[in-house]
Amino acid sequence: MNINERSLTTLSTMSAQGSGGTLNHSDEQAEPSSTFSIFALDYKKHEDLKQMLDGNKDNLKLEAMRRIIGMIAKGKDAADLFPAVVKNVVSKNMEVKKLVYVYLMRYAEEQQDLALLSIATFQRGLKDPNQLIRASALRVLSSIRVPTIVTIMMLAIREAVSDMSPYVRKTAANAIAKLYALDPELKDELVLIITKLLADKTILVNGSAVQAFEHVCPERIDLIHKNYRRLCNLLVDIDEWGQVTVLSMLTRYARSQFVDPNKTFEDEKKAFYEDETEKNDDEDEEEDSLDKKTYVMDSDHRLLLRCTKPLLQSRNSAVVMAVAQLYYYVAPKSEIQIVAKSLIRLLRHHREIQTIVLKSIASIADKHKQIFEPHLKSFYVHSNDSGLVKRYKLEILTILANASNISTILREFQTYVLSPDKEFGAQTIHAIGRCASTISDVTEACLNGLVALMSKKDETIVAESVVVVKKLLQINPSQYSEIIKHIVRMVDKVTVPTARASILWLIGEYSDRISKLAPDVLRKMAKSFPDEETIVKHQILNLAAKLYVVNAKQTHLLVQYVFNLAKYDTNYDTRDKARLLRALLFQPDKCPALSKNAKKILLAPKPAPNLESVIRDHDQYTLGTLSFVIGQKAAGYKDLPDFPLEPPDQSVRNVEVIVPSTPQHDLSRKSSAIAGMTTGGKKKSGTDEKFYSDEEEETSTEGPDTDDEEEEEEEEEEEAEEEEDGEEEEEEEEDNDDNGQEKQKPIDKKIKTNEYEQLDARPTNNVEPEEEEEEESDASSEEEESEEESEEEESSEDEKPKSKHVSTVAKSASNITVSDYTIPAIEKSLLEMDLEAFLGSTSTTVQTIPSKTTIFDDLNDLESLTLTSSVRQYDCLNRITGQGLQIQYRFPRTKFHQSPKMVHVELIFTNTTTDKDIQSIKFLKAKSNMNIQGFDEIDVLPSGGTSVASIGIDFNDKTQPALFDISFNDNSLPTSLSISCHVGELFEQKFLNEQEFNQNLARLRGMNEITDKITINEVQMSKLNFTTVQTKIVQCANVTSVPSGSGDSTIFRFSGQTISSKSLILLTIQLNTLQSTVNLTINSDQIVLATMLLKEIKQTFP
Amino acid sequence: MIHSLFIINGSGEVFMEKHWKTVVSKSICDYFFEAQKKSANPEDVSPVIATPHHYLINICRNNLYFVAVLTNESAPLFVIEFLHRIMDVFEDYFTACTETTLKDNYVIVYELLDEMLDSGLPLVTETNTLKELIKPPNLLRKVANLVTGDSTNVSDALTSSQLSNIPWRRLGVKYANNEAYFDLIEEIDAIIDRNGTTIMGEIQGYIDCCVKLSGMPDLTLTFVNPRLLDDVSLHPCIRLKKWESEKSLSFIPPDGNFRLISYHIGSQNSISIPIYVKHNIQYREGSAGRFELTVGPKQTMGKSLEAVAIECAMPKSVLNCTLTPSQGKCTFDPVKKVLTWDIGKIETNNQNSTRLPTIRGNITLAAGQPIPEGNPTLNVRFTINQVALSGIRVQRVDMHGESYKPFKGVKYITTVKNGRFQIRT
């Protein structure tokens, strides 16, 4: 489509040029093909949209965005507007921004490189004080499906799960599934995050957390244990969509964690009989069986049933269905009935809901008839029900039919048969047949009724009746020879193939009862044989064969005739059948054994067919799932697990430790860890583990009681802090201990109402709960922190006194005695510089500044001299396209004097021709949106000569190439040049001392940090020292090293800042000689650049 | 979850599409069209259609089809319910959800869809919250926008209600007149057989509210006879525990219109049908078929039947009907073969059978067509104001939490949803 457009429009311009450009605009529009002009118009439209977007009026932008959204909504392609749209992601106008987000989510996947331009905006958004902006930034970031930003997404999610706003946490939970879809390899990390979210205290988050759990790691059922009771108790307060997910997860959980409540009853019976027969058994065995008899439902199992029951009153049909599903699979048989009423209530909902609910009811009713019997009338068919609804209702009525209600059902069926919907009528007849075959009392009456129906005028009704009657007759043929005769007489009237085939089969089968009629029917059939349907032809052949066996004398010729007709039939099944029967009947020499028994073969007594539902239920799939509805396995469908035979350990759900919430607590923990170390032994390892990874430890509580108690003692304090939840949990534990739930109930209720009151109270004093949450999330984030980080934290704490010291030094200004550091000469003066500049704002006099800057510049020059060897040159115009002029460029890594935001680029012009000079090389204009400071005109470049010019480009901290035009030799056509910037060249050196470095590092944690690990061999490792590492890094990026104060020779730090936005980039390289690994860490606001830089640095290490 | 959504109009044109994940080509809808073609009636399309790689779940409302595309197993009711919720929101925003309103407001539609689903997972579905995020269109704003040339759907001040624990109500609601209206509507669902006996009779009741109260009102609604309500579904705002223990509805209402509770009184409870229809329908060859109906009220508790109408789908072989009603007017659609008799109001006091509305006349059958076997089914519609057939009454509505005195009003209506009250003849 797009290509078409373009080619067409180019065609149009060509044709216009071809005719000498005389065609004016109206002529162009009056082109013969109408589609053509539409395309042309379409193309133009995009042009003006681009203009509107490029302008700076918000109104126009908004209008343009609206039109673009209109195009997307209609399914038209708007991909070519991507560059124009993506720029507006920074728009201040909320709606423009929103629409750009919509656009991005639609097209980012197709234009990944350009989409990266927008990432920085989202990252900024992630730190916005407004929770909604944070959330929407995260939402878009996770929705644009660009695999290269997986790391950024991961960081963003990790950050967001400890956000203080539950709304942001919810968004983060949603984002997990998206990230997982993008990169399934991140599963392990995501599972950790999910674990944290599952334990979240806010109901808003829980639903989404479980959703993420279901997407990423449904098999990690162990993660649920600790949250199980809380989820059960909070279930009614979760939003309706979350409830559906949680319910289906809990169903699965219950199936894997509790024993079958129904099966044990059967066991009981068995055991009972066993007792009778094997009285002399060992006492041990008897004890065993006694154990089995007394089945007591796990209190958690009971809790689940109790907590889900109120949800049957939800207005959302999906929730009701999910509860019904849970009861169907998990509840004892005696309790399933409570779902019936609610399911029937759903029948008042929309047609689509009715259809699916009815299908599910049919399936439940098949197993538990009694629960729907009282509601029989609810399944009576209205004449304007949709076809599917009618069919399912009929099915349910048939299932529910029994001796006591059959008469009402049959009366109802009678009206259905007469319904103008003939297909439904036919289905009803089939249903009548089913009732007749299952309930013997009414077989006779049904049969008579059906025979009466056969005299109706409508063909489909008659045909269906015949088919059903045929099946019924097979059940008990001897009684009904009159009916058979009646049917045989109808053979001329019935035209529907299946009915004709049924009649013919009947005649053949019971020809002994109608010996006179049968040959005559065959005669008629032989006459019409060529015009019959295949199915009828087969039955004619059958009839012929059977008659021949019984009454060869009368029918011999007729049979031969029919077989001959069949021999030349177009259908090869018919031909095959004829061949088979002929061999069987007329060629006894071929296989005598078979021929001898032909009669037995053909007229063998056949078992009566079992009348089955036309819509077979798909019992193999879980009730209410997609697979269940479509009757085939849908992608991602998983069967419910069977109940375990032995009840798994219940104690896993006991919650001893409730995630604590204050920093003091953290301290107490640390001290306890230390105490543990001193006491040593087993205890030590336990606490250690807990310190680092709380959750896992919790989930795998298998420990002996004594140990637990000790731990509990320690955590008494913490539990005291947990007021609300702790109480609740304790209640449950008590609940666990004694099974008298009746007693517990009032207390439970009380707690519940308390909760509600709180719910109501919250909005009135909105501030308080927020603060609480903040504290909580803070604490939990601290806990989640990895070992490494906490170590670093400690180290930074250690450094605090030192930092004080340094700052005092700084205050004493001019005499800089940073004696701790061993700094190379140049850097030292740089340090001086920086400190001076730092102080400048407070105390330095004005005069000192210029002199210093000159020094600085000199130094820079000096540096550029020393570095030139490592500066690479890149081609931007080769000598062939440049007609002898060759241009290369390089990054001298010095400041561009005209503007500090520009990257200094040197262009090297070489005249490669041997005989002519190139004249007046001029910079014309920048083509991309970047600011480019051009070079002065070069008048003459003699052949073989070289000239160097400096230009400044403001890359705006992006790696997009800069495009600009130059001209030379006074050519009319400009030559386009493109300079692409290596990521490392977007930085400039920024000197920091170690303390400053650490300060900034602390600021740029989390979201702004990326790390990587490189494994290298030992030989290489031994070669790594400060110089080698520095060379490598400096080759990659224009950064400077940070002098190490501690003298640690395994950590190297480098710092720099981006040229345009002056945002810091901090590089830490840590050599780990033991494991032969190099850890790279980059901290920066500009995480995109950081990611790219990291990749580049990684490549320099062997 | 939901991968993409296509909105299709009655004539089978996909006029809007939205993708939450990788784009799925429009051509996927062909499977839906195919299924539609196969079924005789557009209503009969299976709500779930399996295609080789995707699963289509569709709903049909107001002659619009919403087709959702899924790639993975997920509960179909979840999706169906959600699609209906989307339509509800659209109806709330644009008063009616039709092709024209959707096309006129495509930007808002798109913004809403974006807000409601986060890559296929439901995010914000409460209209109260949505309206804070995205302003609904209204005439005043349209005019203002035209004048100032400044238009935006997105509210400038960002909502904060996501933080509160009651997502269905926004903060800072203010009204000059504080009023709360409760409409208790009961719909009869019944089948009457040809002898006039009630085969099946159920009541579906709702309380639809229009609450315009400032601040954070906490309402309690009690019934005179809550015993009758044994099968209910509740709006999430209702405190379940209170309902279970006291059978009173205690809630902080959403702002504006919403359905508070819906209840179902099943067929086990006998209900008294307030209307009867005497009928005599006979077919004969030619134009000699007879058609006669008489409608009368019965046990209406002194209230009159209003907006009575009878609809009758005649068999295909009926060519025409020439009928004269004694009250109201009667039309016959010879294409759809539907006879409609709009009767209007029937007063209760004229029990005199001669003055009851009647319709009489002949039916002409197409020549050569067989005489139909079954008589047509009559669909009856009517409304009774000020009566709830089940006898449920609201005792009182109390308000706590705010100091002003609101106006409270309760209204009872008994009515019939189209096609749910059938008389077999």
Keywords:
heterodimer; A: alpha+beta; Leucine-rich Repeat Variant; Immunoglobulin-like; 6-stranded antiparallel β-sheet; 5-stranded antiparallel β-sheet; 50 helices; disordered N terminus; B: about 425 residues; alpha+beta; 10-stranded mixed β-sheet; 24 strands; globular
Q: Outline the biggest β-sheet of chain A.
A: 6 strands, antiparallel
Largest sheet of chain B: 10 strands, mixed
Helix content of chain A: 55-70%
From the 3D coordinates, which CATH architecture of the largest domain in chain B would you assign? 2-Layer Sandwich
Shape of chain A: elongated
Number of strands of chain A: 15
Unreliable spans of chain A: 1-40, 265-292, 657-870
Computed structural class of chain B: alpha+beta
Q: What is the CATH fold-level name of the domain at 46-262 in chain A?
A: Leucine-rich Repeat Variant
The helix-and-strand class of chain A reads alpha+beta
Describe the structure.
Chain A has 1102 residues and is α+β, with helices and mostly antiparallel strands. Chain A is 58% helix and 9% strand. Chain A has 50 helices and 15 strands. In chain A, strands 10, 11, 12, 13, 14 and 15 form a six-stranded antiparallel beta sheet that branches. Chain A has a five-stranded antiparallel beta sheet with strand order 1-2-3-7-5, with no helix packed on it. The radius of gyration of chain A is 42 Å and the shape is elongated. Helices cover 16% and strands 40% of the residues of chain B. The longest helix of chain B has 19 residues, at 76-94. By secondary structure, chain B is an alpha+beta fold. Chain B is globular. Chain B has helices at residues 29-38, 76-94, 99-104, 106-116, 127-133, 139-148, 240-246; strands at 2-8, 14-19, 48-50, 55-61, 64-70, 117-118, 121-122, 179-192, 198-212, 218-223, 232-234, 249-251, 256-265, 275-282, 289-297, 305-313, 318-325, 329-333, 338-346, 358-365, 377-385, 394-400, 407-415, 421-424. Chains A and B meet through helix 4, helix 6, helix 9, helix 11 and helix 13 of A and strand 2, strand 3, strand 4, helix 2 and helix 4 of B.
